TrEMBL record:
The lineage of its organism: Eukaryota, Metazoa, Chordata, Craniata, Vertebrata. This is Septin. It is found in: Cytoplasm. Residues 35-308 form the Septin-type G domain. Its main location: cytoplasm.
Length: 402
């Protein structure tokens, strides 16, 4: 009897210690499966390098049914146009909305200087749209069109990177996660592939191009995982082969390319890095690509945007000191979390400048006015950031903008 009651109190103790937050991952899982996932992939590089074929092979869909190919004459003056294809794919109840952004016409014209510009503009436009949406009143159901990854196709026929490749990657590396791929790898022997990869990696380093960096794996990961991670890093640029046809190889039907001398299998890792690339994109790094887009590339864009808005405000303030008193004339929306250290520093410096420029009686007047204003906006101060000093200039800006 005594033993029994002891056992009972044991389970009670356990129950007491079990709050239940261990189920959080399941809750998150259920919610995200219900919501579905989305991913936006951009493919860039000279036309004819096999971009559309590879995308179709990657996601086993025909995304380019309605594509119209231009003849040589039409391509001479062609500008880079951006096209978007969206497909909803489902696997074991998990839905993925996949958007492919293509850049037909890239490198096609006779004069290709700055042909990366429309691609860069496109990426910026998506950031801008998101920035507007999340600063707006209704932040529910924001359509996120930010580009999470750009597969950049490098020609297998050149000697490493061409000037256009360097220019493109340098222009975009701070806006998007660039993953370089060596196109049509079946046109090269394994030794040539190896040499080209080394050359391209060296050039990427030499020209200071910042491609997508796979996150370092934790020291407590198992050996197999570490080995896979190392192999992945050494595969850059992924040597890829695409095919839209199914052929028969050793009694099995596989995606491949049939030549008089044999069959190249897309999904055979002895033939190319297709499977490695697909696993990286879909199975292992999709979430990281999205995180880096949000935390690094979008944050950079947002910070730049806020800084230029601040500059506008400061200019406006200098131009018309009355703005300070009227307090409602700023032409910009209030952005949540403006307390960016760079921005605050900038505003503080500018505030100092303005204060020095003011002559004595006026600056006294300003101080008085400011005190007066902070009385009126005390409620707002409480809401904006209770920890921040109510006298800081950035708070003034937020107040005035409101
Ligand atoms: P895109 O203009 O970059 O989209 O290129 P396409 O996917 O339209 O491919 C252009 C041509 O290259 C087509 O004739 C394809 O059959 C061929 N092609 C595509 N992928 C490969 C590949 O991996 N190896 C080889 N040898 N040819 C390919």
């Amino acid at each position: 009897m005594a033993a029994n009651s002891e056992a009972n109190s044991d389970t009670e103790d356990q129950d007491k210690e079990y709050v239940g937050f261990a189920t959080l991952p399941n809750q998150v899982h259920r919610k995200s499966v219900k919501k579905g996932f989305d991913f936006t992939l951009m493919v860039a590089g000279e036309s004819g390098l096999g971009k559309s074929t590879l995308v179709n092979s990657l996601f086993l869909t025909d995304l380019y049914k309605d594509r119209k190919l231009l003849n040589a004459e039409e391509r001479i003056t062609q500008t880079v146009e951006i096209t978007k294809h969206t497909v909803d794919i489902e696997e074991k109840g998990v839905k993925l909305k996949l958007t492919i952004v293509d850049t037909p016409g890239f490198g096609d014209a006779v004069n290709n200087t700055e042909c990366w510009k429309s691609v860069a503009d496109y990426i910026d436009q998506q950031f801008e749209q998101y920035f507007r949406d999340e600063s707006g009143l209704n932040r529910k159901n924001i359509q996120d069109n930010r580009v999470h990854c750009c597969l950049y196709f490098i020609s297998p026929f050149g000697h490493g990177l061409r000037p256009l490749d360097v220019e493109f990657m340098k222009a975009l590396h701070e806006k998007v996660n660039i993953v370089p791929v060596l196109a049509k790898a079946d046109t090269l022997t394994p030794t040539e592939v190896k040499k080209k990869k080394i050359k391209i990696r060296e050039e990427i380093e030499q020209y200071g191009i910042k491609i997508y960096q796979f996150p370092d794996c934790d020291s407590d990961e198992d050996e197999e995982f570490k080995q896979q991670d190392l192999e992945l890093k050494e595969s850059i640029p992924f040597a890829v082969i695409g095919s839209n046809t199914v052929v028969e190889a050793k009694g099995k039907r596989v995606r491949g390319r049939l030549y008089p001398w044999g069959i190249v299998e897309v999904e055979n890792s002895a033939h190319c890095d297709f499977v490695k690339l697909r696993n990286m994109l879909v199975r292992t790094h999709m979430q990281d690509l999205k995180d880096v887009t949000r935390e690094t590339h979008y944050e950079n864009y947002r910070a730049q945007c806020i800084q230029s808005m601040t500059r506008m405000v400061v200019k406006e303030r200098n131009r018309n000191k009355l703005t300070r008193e009227s307090g409602t004339d700023f032409p910009i929306p209030v952005v949540p979390g403006v307390a960016d250290s760079e921005t605050e520093k900038l505003i503080r410096e500018k505030d100092e400048e303005v204060r020095h420029a003011d002559h004595e009686p006026e600056s006294h007047q300003h101080h008085h006015d400011h005190d007066h204003k902070s009385e009126h906006s005390s409620v707002h101060h409480e809401h904006s950031d209770p920890q921040s000093d109510p006298e800081t200039p950035s708070d003034q800006i937020r107040d005035e903008a409101l």
